[in-house]
Amino acid sequence: MSDEFVSVAELSKLGPGKLLRIVVDGHAYMLANVDGTVFATDDMCTHEDASLSTGALHGDCVSCPLHGSRFNVRTGEPSEEPAEKALQTYETQVIGDDIRLRLG
Ligand code: FES
User: Fold this and answer.
1) Whether residue 45 has its Cβ less than 6 Å from ligand 1
2) Ligand 1 lined by 66 (C-beta under 6 Å)
3) Whole-prediction pTM value?
4) Phi then psi for 13, rounded to 5 degrees?
5) Which helix (H) or strand (E) element contains residue 8?
6) Which member of 18, 37, 41, 75 has the greatest number of CB atoms within 10 A?
7) What pLDDT, in 10s, does the model give residues 1-17?
8) 44 Cβ below 6 A of ligand 1
9) CA atoms of 59 and 1, how far apart (whole Å)
10) Could you check whether the bond before residue 16 is cis, i.e. omega within 30 degrees of 0?
């Protein structure tokens, strides 16, 4: 996988307070817009198989739709059980309407 930033989505499709699931090379990522700043993590919950982008974003925390674990999208750290393992986070870059991720 590339260590460079790659374009993955358009900012106009990810308003503040929204989540978006994207798939790059077969891997699912979640994008979160927190007051205009875009953060990226893995989309799969670290507890079981649930897509976090179908959960809800409250401030900078996403809640899992399956069992309610909450993760900080800035750090990936869980703040509510049952999940105990942090999400992988990814560096983001926004240029105009272009959201880019560093996937390496
Ligand atoms: S699958 Fe996310 S908390 Fe259980």
Assistant:
1) yes
2) yes
3) 0.94
4) -100, 5
5) strand 5-10
6) 41
7) 557 999 999 999 999 99
8) no
9) 31
10) no
